[in-house]
Amino acid sequence: MKQPITGYLIDEEGDWVARLACGHRQHVRHHPPFINRPWVVTEEGRAAHLGALLDCPRCDAFEWPDHIVEQAGRDQR
After folding, report:
1. Is the peptide bond before 38 cis (omega within 30 degrees of 0)?
2. d(Cα 51, Cα 60) in Å, to the nearest integer?
3. CA angle, corner 38, sides to 34 and 39, nearest 5?
4. CB contact set of 63 (below 8 Å; sequence gap of 6+)
5. Which of 4, 7, 20, 30 has the greatest number of C-beta atoms within 10 Å?
6. In this structure, is the dihedral angle defined by the CA atoms of residues 54, 59, 61 and 63, taken in order, positive or negative?
7. How large is the average pLDDT for residues 14-41?
8. Per-residue model confidence as pLDDT tens digits over 36-54
9. Which residues sit opposite 5 in a β-bridge?
10. What is the pTM of this model?
11. What is the largest CA-CA distance in the chain?
């Protein structure tokens, strides 16, 4: 399922991660020749890709975003 990029963050290893509208996150690395995303290395490039659609395999698998947790003790009728 395609989801728009809403922002970015840097992971513990220094790689860029896109925040998607669905709540999932996805690495957007630039490691040529295998992964070619030169736009991710500049602030202007990242800004230009806000709203761009990325395929979200976690949405395709019906996975909840990591920050959503089940509340214990709720009555499930």
Report:
1. no
2. 19
3. 135
4. 24
5. 20
6. positive
7. 93
8. 999 999 999 999 999 999 9
9. 20
10. 0.81
11. 53
Closest CA to 41 of 24, 16, 58: 16
Ordered by start, the domain boundaries in the chain are 2-60
Q: Which tokens hold the place of 69? A: 């947790």
Give the tokens for residue 45: 């490039």
SS3 74: coil
Spatial CA neighbour of 56 closest among 46, 45, 67, 64: 64
DSSP secondary structure of 23-61: S-EEE---BTTTB--GGGGSHHHHHHTTT-EEE-HHHHT
